[in-house]
Specification:
Elements lengths: L10 E3 L7 H14 L9 E9 L4 E5 L12 H12 L5 E10 L12 H14 L4 E5 L5 E4 L2 H4 L10
Parallel strand pairs: 4-5
Antiparallel strand pairs: 1-6, 2-3, 2-4, 5-6
């Protein structure tokens, strides 16, 4: 038997003001997208903004449905929009932010498992990492250099 440890480096910023102007601007676009989320059931609004290699910014927000599996998370809305409208353009950075009508979201919200898998698909497809910025409505901002950090041992097309 063999045991392995998988770890990754995470950069933690005290708040959005510590970010570069480009990253701060991207997160603020995610905040604007978050404000337009359709979340009447969970009251948990998520916004995402991604920047493509050509500089285009694509936004997304969560879209709920009374039949829960029919809804879609902000990250996938943005990624699928980018894939449909800018095929072949690489995603450089994905910024995610979340808030709730029920409580203060004072820590970064990471992508759910479905979103991690979807981000991984695009990262493998484009052959380059997608940097991820994560923020609540206030407080610290987390940065990881690849979704592979958040989803080690991911399932991809090499298994098919």
């Amino acid at each position: 038997m063999q045991k392995q440890t998988h770890s990754f480096e995470l950069t933690i910023f005290n708040d959005i003001e510590e970010l570069s102007l480009d990253d701060k601007s991207l997160l603020l676009r995610a905040v604007e997208a978050r404000k337009k989320a359709y979340a009447p059931y969970s009251k948990f609004q998520v916004g995402a903004a991604l920047v493509l290699e050509n500089g285009v910014i694509v936004i997304g927000n969560n879209q709920e449905n009374a039949c829960y599996p029919s809804g879609l998370c902000a990250e996938r809305v943005a990624i699928y929009h980018a894939g449909a409208n800018y095929p072949g353009e690489r995603i450089r950075t994905l910024a995610i932010t979340a808030t709730s009508e029920n409580y203060a979201v004072d820590r970064p919200a990471a992508p759910c498992g479905n979103c991690r898998q979807s981000i991984s698909e695009y990262e493998v497809k484009q052959g380059t990492p997608i940097r991820i910025l994560m923020m609540g409505e206030t407080g610290k901002v987390l940065q990881c250099e690849s979704v592979a950090d958040l989803l080690p041992l991911a399932f991809d097309d090499s298994f098919l």
